[in-house]
TrEMBL record:
It holds the Pfam family S1. It comes from the Eukaryota. Keywords: Membrane, Transmembrane, Transmembrane helix. Residues 40-53 have a biased composition (Pro residues). The chain crosses the membrane at residues 69-86. Residues 38-62 are annotated as: Disordered. Gene3D superfamilies: Nucleic acid-binding proteins. It comes from Miscanthus lutarioriparius. The keyword Iron does not apply. This is S1 motif domain-containing protein. Residues 117-192, 206-280 form the S1 motif domain. SUPFAM superfamilies: Nucleic acid-binding proteins. The lineage of its organism: Eukaryota, Viridiplantae, Streptophyta, Embryophyta, Tracheophyta.
Length: 400
């Protein structure tokens, strides 16, 4: 067995005085290591220069307050409570910035919706004299009265538009973005554009619709078209030249707001979202028939009676046109028939029309018209109707 003796270690008094005064703990190493310093001695700190007038110092109370604040901040930040205080402060800053971030994102969404042509269903918040206020996420947009769908107005044409928009508050409407201006805080929507995107593919040239006259202008009238579902989704223009076969000097003499009319689609401009309509093309042009339908024959007149140039007072410019017609290939003779006055004025200018009356012995009938005067002109020709039309167009292009 091993005998272990437990004896107390040497006391500090057993070591030399130099070792007891050493700044580092005394280690049981060879004596030559104890005289080697562990690091170079630190040079003595020079006293700070006294403050001068050029470098003023803060008051002592202020310096103490700053030291206390720094000590508190360090203690707070490096403690669990300080961590959550900092997190709550960051969260509060984030909450303060969230409305701005949300508004920016919604403006970007509005611009993207306009570029993509998207249709949005938005709630109506309120109405004013100019239109509707709708909500788009965190933003508010405006739908002017002229950009509303005609479906609202046509429910009761005699009702003011302000009363119609009040009834829409609390409902939702389908719209497209018409204008986005973040700097001016302007966000405009159009219900008409949304209706065009939805229903324009259902109309074709030659389609006939029942309509209601919406507004009348010197150049024509806008007519709202009724679709099979019973609502009026699109609006087209009836130009002044398509209102009637009669001479139209004032559209309001023929059409008024709220009138029920029947129209035919004559043109569709997809790029500009426009529809051209006509009322007169649903009526038979009187000049495309024989003169008997325009002016009844008198008892002593015969429809086949020819007149010599001395018996006929030709319409202004008609004599030159007839001479030019004789120069066309295939036209051998030009003669004049009946002449009379109408009860209405269709045009003050000289117009030539090819009658639908069947040809007899290669003889076709032209109807010349100016003001109230109508004159029959008979062409003896070997041309067909299309050839005669082209010949007349060439002559009218040469005659001033």
């Amino acid at each position: 067995m091993l005998a272990v003796s437990l004896r107390p270690g040497p006391s500090l008094a057993a070591f030399p005085a130099s070792a007891r005064r050493s700044p580092v703990p005394f280690l049981l190493f060879p004596a030559r290591l104890h005289h080697r310093p562990c690091c170079s001695p630190r040079p003595p700190r020079e006293p700070a220069p006294p403050p001068t007038r050029d470098t003023p110092r803060l008051p002592r109370s202020t310096r103490r307050a700053c030291r206390r604040f720094v000590s508190w901040a360090l203690a707070t930040l490096f403690s669990p409570a300080g961590f959550w205080i900092a997190r709550l402060g960051s969260a509060r800053l984030l909450l303060d910035e969230m409305p701005t971030l949300r508004f920016t994102a919604d403006w970007e969404a509005a611009r993207a919706g306009k570029d993509q042509g998207r249709i949005f269903t938005l709630p109506v918040l309120r109405a004013n004299s100019g239109g509707l206020i709708v909500r788009f996420n965190s933003l508010q947009g405006f739908v002017p009265n002229p950009l509303l769908s005609p479906a609202h107005w046509c429910k009761d044409p005699k009702k003011p538009i302000q009363d119609i928009t009040k009834d829409l508050v609390g409902t939702s409407i389908s719209v497209k973005v018409a204008e986005v201006n973040e700097e001016e805080r302007k966000l405009v929507f159009s219900e008409k554009d949304a209706s065009w995107s939805t229903y324009s593919s259902q109309i074709k040239i030659g389609d006939i619709y029942d309509g209601i006259v919406g507004s009348v202008f010197p150049y024509g009238a806008f007519v709202h078209l009724r679709f099979p579902d019973g609502l009026y989704h699109l609006t087209g223009l009836v130009h002044i030249s398509e209102v009637s076969w009669d001479l139209v000097q004032d559209v309001q003499d023929f059409l008024n707001e709220g009138d029920a009319v029947k129209v035919i689609v004559v043109n569709i401009d997809t790029a500009k979202s426009r529809i051209a309509l006509s009322i007169r093309q649903l009526e038979e042009d009187p000049l495309l028939e024989t003169l008997d339908k325009v002016i009844p024959l008198e008892a002593d007149q015969s429809p086949d009676r020819m007149m010599s140039p001395s018996e006929v007072e030709l319409l202004p410019g008609l004599d030159g046109i007839c001479n030019e017609l004789l120069q066309e290939d295939g036209i051998t003779d030009v003669q004049f028939g009946r002449q009379a006055s109408e009860k209405r004025v269709v045009s003050q200018d000289l117009e030539l029309w090819l009658s639908n009356a069947p040809a007899k012995d290669n003889k076709f009938t032209l109807l010349a018209r100016a003001g109230r005067q109508v004159q029959e002109v008979y062409l003896t020709t070997s041309l067909d109707q299309e050839g005669i039309k082209k010949a007349v167009q060439r002559v009218l292009g040469r005659v001033p």
